[in-house]
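Need tokens for this chain, all 363 residues.
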Amino acid sequence: MTIAYAEEYRDPAIAQSLVRQIKAASARPIRLMEVCGTHTMAIFRHGIRALLPEIISLLSGPGCPVCVTAQGDIDAFVELSRMPNVTLATFGDLMRVPGSGSSLQRETAEGADVRVVYSPLDAVSLAAEAPDREVVFLGVGFETTAPTIAAALLSARKMNLTNFSIYCAHKTVPTALNALMDNPQVQIDGFLLPGHVSVIIGLNAYRPFFDRYQTPGVVAGFEPVDVLRGILALVTMIEAGKPELDNGYPRAVTAQGNLQAQQVMADAFEPTDAQWRGLGVIPGSGLSIRAELEAFDAVKRFGLEVADTPEPKGCACGEILSGTKTPPQCALFRKKCSPMHPVGPCMVSSEGTCAAYYRYSSQ
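Here are the structure tokens for all 363 residues:
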């Protein structure tokens, strides 16, 4: 049953039929943006751009959590790694992201204790096993990872750990859509909304955005047929002048989302203003540790001053995240910036747009 289910969403005949329908429905230039790094990689991996009519442009938005993390936060991570008696725990993508003068990978080579973990609970275990060291988990991500990190924080409190803290740099997706639409340089006709995030927050989380802007949005899965069905739905809405908010991923996404995961996040975090690379400060778009749990807040525990640091000179990562540029329009792309020698995070992360272009595109 599982195999047949997977084959349905990868069926070449269904995909070809959808491509024909998209071409038949398209009559004018349309700009669509996917707001998920996994969608970006799926679109490139399956060659979907090449299948579409030239009048349909696919833009990659701020869907890579590592990429949207502000340069000042990256520098703060490096600062933490240099502190005595501190062990950092992080997901792997952060290791190679360049800060203003260093990276976690470089600091590790010079003796810093930075551990790559697969779960925030691994960081809690590190703290329990080494009570004489300060263990800091670097909390970066959207609503997909935030519940597990919130659960780790609450678990550390239950265990009465006094040497565990979290640097909370989480972002929330729906608020970023507002910032994109309010940017006069950004022209978007419809959004391919993220599947993983929507599993947690549900379709209704986008309702205030849709009601305000009346811009078509479709939540989509990640198989080729999923993506093509999402694009067809958006093209059909736009051509008919009838915008809708649609769930094209009903096998995983509901209207309400995962209420238990939402509650865990609410128990640990509260909304705050957040700095996004490429989008600036977006009110209410971040998550901060609740006041009653501030003992687990690494920024407060270590007295960190997070500066508003400019991006690397010449790097267009911020503009790429906002959809105002594509990687080939960056002067550093394929020249000074490559996966082996990245200048910005868009070339580092497995979900980064520059990394996808470098790997899959000849441009």
